[in-house]
Amino acid sequence: MVLTKVRPGESGYTLVETAVALALFITVLLPLTASIVSPFTDRRPEQMNAALCIAEKEMTHISVNRTFADGITEVADGFLVSRSVKRNNVGVDIEVTVSLRENADKPILVLCKSIVVY
Asked: What is the pTM of this model?
């Protein structure tokens, strides 16, 4: 490999230009990486699916066994299930709320159903 002399007016990139290009590249790359990786590390869809299964089981249990009473139950995986039953003229309104034990004030899912009782 033969090195040639640098002629006046034919200089390469300076260190400052390289640093600015790298900063711009990182400014674009970091948010892009975060938006691509976030759906794979987010557990909310799994929690929502588990909460829906738990709420449907609880709603079926209440409907089949006719256990129309309020209550809070702790189930597996750290979920809390609370049910609220209100009687009206023609039937019963049931509300099942599923939340995490650590964050019981913030429900993940609320499932409602009205049953006509003869």
From this structure: 0.61
